[in-house]
Structures are given as C-alpha cells and as structure tokens.
C-alpha cells in the first residue's frame, strides 16, 4: 500500500500546484482592470482596448484554459487512486493488521482517515441528478470526487468540485447500512435548484 499512498500524495501535491498556478493567473487578469475570461478585448468601436495589455490577457487566458484541463485530468487520476486505496482497505489484509512497524502504522492511520465519512446526505429531490445517481438520505460520504475526509475543509470545497464538473461524472463512495457503495453522479442543470438536487451536511468529528 506504500506505493499507492505515495502516488496519491504526489497527485494531491500536483493538484495543489495547478490550483496555485491558476489562482496566480487570475490575479494577473485582475491586474488588467479586473478583466475576466470572457470580457471583450476591443472597445465599443471595435478597436483594441488601450487600457489593458492585450497580449498579457490573451496569454493568461490561454494558460488558465490549459491548466483547467490539467486540473480535470488530475482529479480523475485522484478519484481512481482513491478507489484503489478504498478497495485495498476493504480487503482488510490480515498481514497489514499484524504489522507493528512505524511505516505500517502510519499507512493504516492515514488510510483510515482518508476513507472516513465526512458528509451526510439529508435530502434528495425527486428527478434530480442526485436521485438519478441513486444517492439516498442517510448516506454517509467517504469520497466526493477528489475530496475525502483528509482534504475536506468546508462545503465550499464541494461546491468548487461540482462547478468544475458540470456535465461530467463524479465518483462518490458512500457508506450505506454498513456497506460501501460506489456511485456516479453527474452535476447538471435540471428543473430544480442547483446542479445536484440534494442537501449534504458535514459530519461532526468525534
């Protein structure tokens, strides 16, 4: 399990580096009269704007688009790696339980924390993406895309993943009646509010 955990740490570090680079590029855009990703670079008469550095804006926008694609790709890798770790934890290798080395103990503790429930579903709307994914009230979430108990900070983390994954399937692992269930949830617009159609709340840490 050491190799998968090391790979997971490498992927998470890379993800954080990409996010930092994206944030830095948005700061570059902000320095150009607060321009974003879609505002026109010409004035009302069709001439290039003279109040911003157009080359800087175009370069930053291009780099942001590339990095956002990289971010989506690495999130998919993280999800797959999480699933591998989760499956290994479920196998509950007896040899691992009997290990008394410091490495074995550290891996076991980290795995346990990473796969602990950290959110609970308390509402699912009929006809919503959450309902289609067969998410149920009372499900305790172990993994939401690239987010686990280890890197979860607030519901804003979930909102960010949902916004970046609109129209694309997210892997969820939930604990339901003492059984771990893997679901595929695709955030999208529907007849109700939001992109999921469910309500989730953080679990209090014991």
Automatic annotation (TrEMBL):
GO cellular component terms, semicolon-separated: cytoplasm; nucleus
UniProt GO BP: proteasome regulatory particle assembly
Coiled-coil ranges from the UniProt annotation: none
Transmembrane segments: none
Domain PDZ, first and last residues per copy: 101-178
SUPFAM superfamilies xref list: PDZ domain-like
Top-level division of the source organism's lineage: Eukaryota
Keyword annotations: Chaperone
Gene3D superfamilies, sorted: 2.30.42.10, 6.10.140.1710
UniProt keyword DNA-binding, yes or no: no
Annotated Pfam families: Nas2_N, PDZ_6
Family label: Belongs to the proteasome subunit p27 family.
Protein name: 26S proteasome non-ATPase regulatory subunit 9
Species, as recorded: Mytilus coruscus
């Amino acid at each position: 399990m050491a190799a998968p955990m090391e790979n997971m740490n490498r992927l998470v570090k890379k993800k954080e580096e990409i996010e930092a680079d994206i944030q830095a590029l948005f700061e570059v855009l902000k320095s150009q009269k607060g321009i974003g990703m879609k505002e026109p670079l010409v004035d009302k008469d069709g001439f290039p704007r003279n109040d911003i550095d157009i080359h800087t804006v175009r370069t930053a926008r291009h780099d942001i688009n590339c990095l956002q694609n990289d971010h989506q790709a690495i999130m998919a890798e993280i999800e797959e790696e999480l699933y591998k770790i989760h499956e290994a934890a479920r196998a509950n290798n007896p040899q691992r339980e009997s290990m008394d080395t410091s490495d074995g103990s550290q891996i076991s503790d980290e795995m346990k924390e990473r796969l602990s429930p950290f959110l609970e579903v308390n509402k699912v709307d009929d006809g919503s993406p959450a309902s289609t994914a067969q998410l149920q009230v009372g499900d305790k979430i172990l993994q939401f895309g690239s987010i686990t108990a280890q890197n979860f900070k607030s519901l804003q983390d979930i909102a960010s993943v949902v916004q970046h994954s609109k129209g694309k399937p997210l892997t969820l692992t939930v604990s339901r009646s003492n059984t771990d269930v893997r679901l595929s949830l695709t955030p999208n617009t529907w007849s109700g509010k939001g992109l999921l159609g469910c309500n989730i709340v953080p679990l209090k840490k014991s």
